[in-house]
Amino acid sequence: MVNQDPFKDEYQELLTYSELTYSRVSDYYFVDGMALVKSKEGEKYGFINQKYELKIPLIYDMAQHFQNGRALVAKGANIGYINTQGEEIIPCIYRAIREFKDGFYPAYLNGKGWGYLNWNGDVAIPFAYRDALPFVEGLAAVEDTRRYWGFIDAKDKVKISFKFEAVKSFAGGIAAVKINDLWGFIDKSGNWLIKPQYVQVLDSDFSKGKAQVRANGKTFFINQQGEIVNH
After folding, report:
1. Disulfide: which of 18, 74, 102, 164 matches 149 by Cβ 3.0-4.6 Å?
2. In a domain, 73, yes or no
């Protein structure tokens, strides 16, 4: 009979072993040859290898399973990334790190602001922004100290000026932006494709052919010309 769960035996063995030593084992089994474990005595996390050896010590206040050879970990209120050798690729000095996209992590350095790190953890764009979203289609939405949003490129050059009250990332070459309390849509040059007229944008991903918006007490879908279309 074919085993329907190829991880079942491995996980049961890991669970039996870990219950004797740790208070918790990763629900993700082994990822990148490592499994997340939690100490019995305290609230610290570390990682064991497939020989059940503790390879990364129980020193972290939070940890996530490995993905692409690295794991998000925390020391106190600060977070960073380690590799499977336990080396800090990105040091635990950041209060927040957002999803890696288009070659960059948005990161928040306490006392300075948001900036961007590259894959190796080097500072690629200085910590000068009040908020920052991941890069998408070569542009990132950032908020300046005046609380206005605009878009920058990978060299920290302003491509669309800071004048919006709120924005969403680009999708299919189009971004939803808010000005004077109304939402509209712009292209990657900052030109209006659909002028501000909506009180809410529920789904701005025109790569799927339509966006969902709300105006005059109604919710509906529009195409890239701003025409109402069927669901």
Report:
1. 164
2. no
For the chain, what is the domain count?
A: 1
Give kind and range of the element (H or E) at residue 109.
strand 105-109
For residues 58, 62, 66, 69, the Cα torsion angle rounded to the nearest 10 degrees is -80
Q: Which residues contact 185 (CB under 8 A, 6 or more apart)?
A: 174, 175, 176, 177, 192, 193, 194, 204, 206, 211, 224, 226
- Among 187, 182, 223, 217, CA closest to 203: 223
pLDDT in tens, 52-104: 889 999 999 999 999 999 999 999 999 999 999 999 999 999 999 999 999 99
Could you tell me the end-to-end alpha-carbon distance of the chain, in angstroms, rounded to an integer?
Answer: 46
The whole-angstrom separation of Cα 12 and Cα 58 is 22
Within 8 A by CB and 6+ apart from 100, the residues are: 119, 134
Does 20 map to a domain?
A: no
Q: Which domain holds residue 221?
A: 166-231
Question: Is the residue at 28 inside a domain?
Answer: no
Whether 207 is covered by a domain: the verdict is yes
The string of DSSP letters for 62-97 reads: EE---BTTEEEEEETTEEEEEETTS-EEEEEEESEE
pTM: 0.86
Cβ count within 10 A of residue 223: 13
Calpha distance 226→213 (Å, rounded): 10
172: domain CATH number is 2.40.10
**Hey, what are 202's tokens?**
């529920």
